[in-house]
Amino acid sequence: MCLCETKFLSIYFQVVIWRAVASIAWSVLLLPVTTAVFVLLSRFSLFHPIQWISDCTSLLTASSTIFSLVVLCGIMSLFVFPLVVPSIPCSRMALLGTVLHPRQCVHSLVYCTMGMLVMWCASVTIGGRYSTLGTPCRQSESGEVVTCLNEYHLFLLLAGAFMGYSHSFLGVVQNMYYVSFQPIQQYKYPRFKGCLPMVVKCSVIQALYSARNFAALYFFFGYVPKTWISSTLNLQIDSSLQPLDSLTGLLDFSLLYHLSISGAFLYLTWYLTVLLFRIYVTEAYSFPVQSTFTEDAEQCLPKVLAEKNTLFLALQDLALLSQHSLSRRLEVFNLSQPGGHPHNWNAISGECLCLLSELTQRLVAHQDAVASNGRVKSQSASSDTRSASSSSSGTEDIAETPRLSVPVLTAPFTPDVDSPFSSPAIRRLVGQQDPHSPWSGTVQSPHIMRRGPKLWSASTGEKCPVRLLGEKGSSRFSVIPLHGLETSVNSCSCHTLNCSAQVKSFLAKRVLIMYLFNKLPEASSQALFADSQAHIWALQGLSHLVAASFSEDQFGVVQTTLPNILSCLVVLLEAVDRHFKLPHASSKPVRTLCSMGDSTYKTLRFALRAALKTAIYKITTTFGEHLNAVNISTEHRKRLQQFLEFKE
Amino acid sequence: MCSLGVFPAPVTAAQTLFERNNELLSALHPGEHSQACDLPSPQFTRDTLKGHSRPESSSRSVFLDQRDTLWMRSAGAWRDAGLYGLLDEITNSAEEVPRFLAVGSACVLALLRWASSFHGSLFPHLTLSSDEMVAEFSQMLDWSDSALRSFAWHPHTDKFAVALLDDSIKIYKSNSSPTPTLKHRCQRSVCALQWKPLCGSALAVACQSCLLIWHVDPASLSTRPSSGCAQVLSHPGHSPITSIAWSPTGSLLVSASPVDTSMMVWDVAAESAVPLQRVGGGGVTYLSWSPDGSRLLAATPSALFRVWETRMWTCERWPCLKGSCQSACWSPDGGCLLLSMQGERVIYALTFSDLTGGPKAASVVADLSETTFPGPDGDLTVGGEVCSLSWDPRGERLAVLLKGDSQADNHPSVIAVFKTRSSPVFELLPCGFVMGEAGAEPRFMQFHPHFQHGALLTVCWSDGRISHVPFYFSSAGLLGGDSPQQALASNTTNPSSNKLYTEQIS
């Protein structure tokens, strides 16, 4: 087992870490180019072009620039690891929590320092009045020469810190470290070339915004750092110069120009690193389907699919091989050499189906949570009478109560406190014990079926908590009632719950608290589908493999799993359809133009629905009438018939 | 090489009904009934459809002229027409602004105009207006004058969509269910339509300013789906869109605009686009995805086209000798590409195979220069430039829409139909001309994607009629799994006919 883990780690290391290193190396290599452009722009003078060019060339070869470059290179190698699954805060409070999280604070601090360092390098490179913090100046009354504070230098340094913080802050808010995969494959260089204008545009725009915000900030609070620095470093303030925290001081065109230019340079270095990392990390990696040597078996696709770290790369590879590579498809359909078992296909299809049914369960659980909310509200009048009768049955649900952590793949911040993600995990265990029963006959409503074994306890949902949710408060508050109801239901706990609910309804009337705790619309829906890129690939891979098996599968290995695959897809389709009937689920998010943050995760649910339908169509159009011979339940057959007639 | 000279003489007096026993039969023949298919063939006349009476953004003429302040006018000009408008406004109101500003803006404007005219002289199509550009690059012959703007069969069902002059789209099904009419605020100057493969409902519409994706629920009885059913996809600088192509798996949509050097690869559900930019050529006018999904043809307005491979999205450049690529179609297996160029009266073929790594040069497979056929009421000249090409899904019939000469009265646009044969060598054999009713010229054609008994060509005529011409033949078996044997068998059983044709051709 230990050996296996090291093997997995080695794959992970080879693929991801190596790519990270390569991308950082490239961004370091690009640094001289961006620096040269920056130097050219910062020294720009319209009327002395020859002097401008010669100045710049001499500056570029000067030792100070090379030293700054070395410092910058050191800065670049600091890096924060991006996410494949975005973190989606569901309420403003959760967002606040993320921003104020200690890890995030350290991150912001590091970025502030980096920003200051880069700005220091920039100010040294620009030279002139920006170059040093202290300048000699002549005191007005005595006439002696003392060291004064150079406010221009301080201004740029503080701007660097501000931009560093805003970069780190926006990185969280816009999910900048979320890496989305492109719908098409491209080589790295064309992709970089294609993205470069966008990155330059974004960094310029972001720098202009930051410059504006920083100028406003400095106008109001600039005297604080100025007096602090001058008192601690014992620097005089030159009274003959215009102070920068005044309107006339700030309206200095050359200062604002240099501020925006160096800001753009700062953002560009960071954005280029992010871009290069995205390009490198989303590149497809080709895993072998099966290996002739047993020691390489851990690196093969079926094994890699089961590993969480490499899941995304493996699924991407699966989707690609199912569409583009005949020889690798044949390997998937192949039988194992001694024994003649379709191990490859079984492992691959099993992993995909597992992933998809896990999504189904997640969706059903979410719908249950929302539905139970509604039901509880509607019956708020008749509560006390039933509580006694149901108290006995309440114990039966204990198995479901422990609120386990979120399923494997979801973001760490899967926000929705009220959706009990607990049950999927347990039901998954159950489902593995009995693979046939849970989903075979449940077309109409899987969540009824889920409760099938304990139907007699169905009344548990309608007892005590009823009054607790009288207010239209955030569904977050409903957690506690549900929770309490399932563990210990008696009149006492009901009473305490009532009290707490009163406190909460009191709180709920306070606008600020409501503002912070109210759930953002769509956010729970987005969070549910946060990792759906994996599901989309699984769907594409499965459907293309199944469709290809119609002509390529010599041994008929796919036929045995076809009923499972079809019913899994149909059940998932029903869950997805029902999810889209929930409020806010089908509303389209606003598209943001020109920001480095990737907002693809906001539309993943639509992509998943489209991919699911396409996958079913792919299978039905390929197999056509032959599907009638597949052993699936009548309800599923009805649904598939709709697909055969193109009525979906 | 096949030429029009070996074709059977066209029957001008009556409409061509169908092909049977290797013969195109027209309504003249007694005892022949109308088509066996029960597909709707609606007719639209220009009078019933009202186009836009006003061009875009000219509502100004309706209102009284009122003098605003310079600031207001400048802001309005900036909003309406961008930098050009602003400079124009400042130059025009020279008496209100400081002299240096007026002179400076006039200079900048002149400089910009000079630069853009230089750009325009490199790529002449950039000087066209948006509507003219659509008309120039549309696959519809005489697009601006036609009552029908575009047409598309659904790839899997008996359902087609027609875009009309009044910017609405109608969807017809084979049974007499309601025909939904699609209208949208952004749906202007529809240039192309395409249904999403592997989907029952999604229809992509290439409009003047954006790309619309309609989701028309096939089970719905509504005749006016709301504009909420449409997704609007737009990208700055990417309009007008003249061509769209869905990937055969339905996962990607590619759109092209003659003014944008990059074509957009859309992930429609996620509404995100990846631009694929190649500067040479000055734009992309026509896209065609090979049926196996492995290659994509992108034609540019210049004498250049590209063939992209869709795995890693690299392209190979194909410079042409004379004009730009006007139309193209792929063989059903994606191995052969037929092309027609502007200004040339031939069809070129490119054969792709994975073994040799692609073709080196295009070969001429058909000569379509003017040929005169004697007829009962005077001579009839056919032949000319190719407007569009269409290959039936079995790969047995190729329809070519030939532009006529609008000045000459005996030189109409016609559709020439070839039989195609891929083994032992790729060959085009004459089949016949598809003629319409007297006075009607073909404007657009498309093969039905899954006709049972052969091939079915749907033709949009200049009188606004849509008709279907079935070609009944027994397939040589290109589609089935046992194709080689069958093809071989048919070759060996009919040596005489093969020989006959080859003699005629040579």
UniProtKB/TrEMBL annotation, chain A:
Q: Could you state a single Gene Ontology molecular function term?
A: protein-macromolecule adaptor activity
* Chief subcellular location: nucleus
- Spell out where the chain crosses the membrane: 21-46, 66-88, 109-132, 152-177, 198-221, 255-277
Q: Where in the cell is it found?
A: Nucleus membrane; Nucleus, Nuclear pore complex
Region (Disordered), start-end ranges: 374-401
Q: Cite a single GO BP annotation.
A: mRNA transport
A Pfam family annotated for this chain is Ndc1_Nup
Low complexity bias: start-end ranges:
378-393
GO terms under cellular component: nuclear membrane; nuclear pore transmembrane ring
Membrane topology is: Multi-pass membrane protein
> What are the UniProt keywords, alphabetically?
Membrane, mRNA transport, Nuclear pore complex, Nucleus, Protein transport, Translocation, Transmembrane, Transmembrane helix, Transport
Spell out the family assignment given in the record's similarity comment. Answer: Belongs to the NDC1 family.
Record's function text? Component of the nuclear pore complex (NPC), which plays a key role in de novo assembly and insertion of NPC in the nuclear envelope. Required for NPC and nuclear envelope assembly, possibly by forming a link between the nuclear envelope membrane and soluble nucleoporins, thereby anchoring the NPC in the membrane.
Protein's name according to its UniProt entry: Nucleoporin NDC1
UniProtKB/TrEMBL annotation, chain B:
- GO BP annotations listed: nucleocytoplasmic transport
**Where does the Aladin seven-bladed propeller domain start and stop, copy by copy?**
130-472
Q: Return the Basic and acidic residues bias intervals.
A: 47-57
Q: Where is this region: Disordered?
A: 33-60, 487-506
> Which SMART domains does the UniProt record give?
WD40
List cellular component terms (GO).
Answer: nuclear pore
Q: Tell me the InterPro entries matching this sequence.
A: Aladin (IPR045139), Beta-prop_Aladin (IPR057403), WD40/YVTN_repeat-like_dom_sf (IPR015943), WD40_repeat_dom_sf (IPR036322), WD40_rpt (IPR001680)
Q: Do you know which SUPFAM superfamilies this protein is assigned to? A: WD40 repeat-like
Q: Which domain of life is it from?
A: Eukaryota
* Name used for this protein in its record: Achalasia, adrenocortical insufficiency, alacrimia
Please give the organism: Cyprinus carpio carpio
